[in-house]
Amino acid sequence: MLSIADLKSGEKATIEDVSTEIIPLKLLEMGCLPGNTVEVLKLSKFKDPLYLNINDTFLAIRRDTAKLVYVKPIQTTI
Amino acid sequence: MSQIKVALIGNPNTGKTSVFNKLTGLNHKVGNYPGITVEKKVGQLKLEGGVKVNILDLPGLYSLNTNSLDEEVAVEILVNDKGENYPDVVVVIADIDNLKRNLLVFTQIKDLGLPCILAINMSDNMHKKGISLDIKQLEQRLKTKIALISARKNSGFNELKELIANYKNLSIEPCTNASRVDKNYFGGLKEKFPQKNIYKLWLILSQNLYANEDEKNTIQSQLEDFRIKSNLELKRLQQKEIIARYSFINDTLKKTLTKDIKQATGLRARLDRVLMDRVWGYVIFACILLLIFQAIFTFASYPMDLIDESFAQLSEWISALLPDGQFTRLITEGVIPGIGGVVIFIPQIAFLFLFIGILEESGYMSRVVFLTDRIMKKFGLSGKSIVPLVSGTACAIPAVMASRNIENWKERLITILVIPFTTCSARLPVYLIIISLVIPNETFFGVFNYQGLVLLFLYVLGFVVAVVSAWVLHKVIKTKAQSYFVVEMPDYKPPILKNVFFTVYDNTKSFVVDAGKIIFAISIILWVLASYGPNDKFSNAEQYVNNEITAQSLDLSDDDYQTRIESFKLRHSFIGYMGKAIEPIVQPLGYDWKIGIAIITSFAAREVFVGTLATIYSVGSEDEDTIKNKMNKEVNAITGEKIYNFASGISLLLFYAFAMQCMSTLAIVKKETNTWKWPLIQLVSMSIFAYIVSLIAFQLLK
Predict the structure, then answer these.
(1) Are A61 and B486 inside 8 Å of each other by CB?
(2) Which of B155, B224, B237, B475 registers the highest number of CB atoms within 10 A of its CB?
(3) Which residues in chain B are contacts of A57 at CB distance < 8 A?
């Protein structure tokens, strides 16, 4: 399954599931929950950390945390 | 007249601090909760009719599920209804842009059965962002009263104050039903404790709250059946809770909030593109650092010189005014320079916090964290460590204070511990004089001056050692707290000057009051050690010097005579004997007892080095050239070699680069970590490290 860490800059996805046991609760509280949309706004050098828009909250998380959030990319038709 | 106790709570970046400042103005106090390092901000407000309101600004949090000491304190206060800080009414600050997320903590507090007011900040932006809100319906659904406020435009505060005054009319009904989360678990709780608030019980069960041990133990024993067995199960329930709350909030907002999608997010995207660019981001950050560095280094030197002079003049003036004697000297040589030694740091601290305040307020600081996190992470630091480390090159004191906004305790502690390795401005006078003595003033390739290169090398060395020791500490220090990195990227906003002012004011004040006491005390102890001697060679110094002069038939001017006496006294004061005592220890490093004294006094502050040597070498003025000449002429009585040669000079430079010689920094580290353990570890380990490095350098080079 894909995680946020697999997304490219500018890509949007729907959150499918999270690794409940190890994910920081704070991330869930900020809206990182199944069903919500996530967009990767920017990747920094070495792709870590990631700058995201999750459910209209703008935040940065480290790559190892991003791997804990499983997503399904939203196909955008250009 | 009774007081209303208000707790101010809300997510970070909602303008909670602005609201607090607006409500209380200068009428507030910043301190610590007893026994811990969490900052406590309390302010007063008087309502119409003379009712006094006590406002407690709780640490910002995203929910009542805690993962830092700050958050535990906040939740503890809300849960412990017998505590002295337990509020009569809670004001939850939300901001209009992030209402959905801000409401999470609101619904939690509401479930605790506390009267709650929802203050929606930045409401002046509503129209601009195309947001409209059905306040009536929202109040009904959330079972609360809402105040639309704007700290920036100063609107809505009268309504908020009125709601606070009439807090008794607020509903204390919860707006969500906790049993919705998990029927079995919460249903069981309700059955067993029908009289209690089950959400409160849940928090006691799930959070690590520490205060009120007695009550905690009785409750805990009753709750034993409900203890959650595994961490995973706990997390599952917490996740369910969050999902249940968000579904309630989504439902509620769907019916009450409409948002025109063509909102203006353009500014954020445009600024982010430049400020967070993989190349330009770093260039711009470097320029901003340079500006801050300049300000702290150069601009601050004007007020600092002024303070220095004023205190010297004050001393002179008082010593002329009062009759000569021990008391007068205690005042003019101990107390006044002691106070001066505290006040002198104010300009640098104020400048640093001025910039930090602006950068934080504008939203730029989070971008810097984003840019630097990856590099700092490798060394056990966080992106948030960069500002303290860079500020350390001006002065470690404000730098240690600036590390407060690192939430992760381990990363914060490591940052604090390594800051003193960075080359602070107090090392500069020492470096300059030693370099000019032992490094040739020549250039190679016609451009690079050796002296300049050595100075640059010392700066780089300080930073490298700081980072490397951070890495070592990262491997050594073990903490239970799980490390996480979730940084909100707030909107860009022009800073509110009042908030910046309070940042500067509060931090400066806390330095002057708290660290000041310790610096002041140690200055007086040092003065006593330098002003008294164990035998009559100190008290009858004139006689001994007179004898010397007659014996050697010297012809001295008045000034030279005075300084000779001073120097004789210093040699036979307690501190002089201490210098002699440590001579065997410093000899392997290439120093004599005079440098030994200078090193002891330097533990008060490094810059004292030059002044101490000036006194010891009987130099009347602190004119650099004269001291330099004297130092240059110093020879070893046995070997006839120069005392300040290449080997001992390098050894001395390295010693000053690494040794923890600054009581002000130790004082502030004690304050920030709330124990003497860490400053003592710093003092001992850094000084031993400095000793070993200097020893090796001298033995190799001599």
Answers:
(1) yes
(2) B237
(3) 98, 101, 488
In B248-383, beta strands by DSSP E: 257-259
Tell me the pLDDT tens digit for each residue of B360-391.
Answer: 889 898 899 899 888 888 888 888 888 888 87
What whole-number distance in Å separates Cα of residue B89 and Cα of residue B4?
A: 8
The residues, ordered by sequence, that sit 6+ positions from B259 with a Cβ below 8 Å of its Cβ are B129, B130, B131
B649's CB contacts (< 8 A; 6+ apart) are: B434, B435, B437, B438, B439
Q: Per residue in A6-44, pLDDT tens?
A: 999 999 999 999 988 888 888 998 889 999 999 999 888
Contacts of A46 in chain B (CB under 8 A): 374
Chain A residues touching residue B63 (CB < 8 angstroms): 25-26, 29
Supply the DSSP string of B360-395, one letter for each residue: HHHTHHHHHHHHHHHHHHTTT--GGGHHHHHHTTT-
- Mutation for A interface: B107, B486, B493, most A CBs within 10 A: B486
pLDDT of residue B380: 85
CA distance B675 to chain A (A): 29
Contact A25 B243 (CB under 8 A): no
* pLDDT tens-digit series, residues B39-50: 788 999 998 888
Q: Say yes or no for a CB contact (<8 Å) between A20 and B239.
A: yes
Quick check: is A18 in a domain?
yes
Residue A34 located in a structural domain: yes
Contact across the interface for B485 and A18, Cβ inside 8 Å: no
Q: Which among B292, B291, B338 is positioned nearest to B315, based on CA atoms? A: B338
Distance of CA B560 to the CA centre of its chain: 45
Arithmetic mean of pLDDT over chain B: 84
What is the structure's pLDDT at B512? 80
A78: in domain: no
Position A66 in a domain: yes
Residue among A20, A46, A65 whose CB faces B236 most closely? A20
**3-class state of residue B659 by DSSP:** coil
pLDDT at position B626 is: 65
Whole-angstrom distance, CA of residue B606 vs CA of residue B592:
18
Please judge whether B100 and A60 are an interchain contact, meaning their C-beta atoms are less than 8 angstroms apart: no
Other Cβ atoms closer than 10 A to B192: 14
ipTM, two decimals: 0.92
B487: which strand partners? A60
Q: Identify the residue with better confidence: A70 or B508.
A: A70
Residue B15 above 80 pLDDT?
yes
Q: At residue B5, does pLDDT exceed 60? A: yes
Domains and their CATH numbers in chain B? 1-263 (3.40.50.300), 280-299+345-495 (no CATH)
Q: Which domain holds residue A36?
A: 4-73
For helices B213-222 and B198-206, the axis angle rounded to 10 degrees is: 100
**Residue B8, phi then psi, degrees to nearest 5:** -100, 125
B320 by DSSP, 3-state: which? helix
Q: How far apart are CA B112 and CA B76, in angstroms?
A: 12
Residue with the larger pLDDT of the pair B516 and B664 = B664
Beta carbons of B120 and B92 less than 8 angstroms apart: no
Taking CB atoms and an 8 Å cutoff, what residues of chain A touch B236?
20
Nearest Cβ partner for B242 among A29, A48, A49: A29
- Residue holding tokens 């506390």? B114
Q: How far apart are CA A35 and CA B450, in angstroms?
A: 63
* B697 confidence band (pLDDT: 50, 70, 90): very high
CATH number of the domain to which A66 belongs: 2.30.30.90
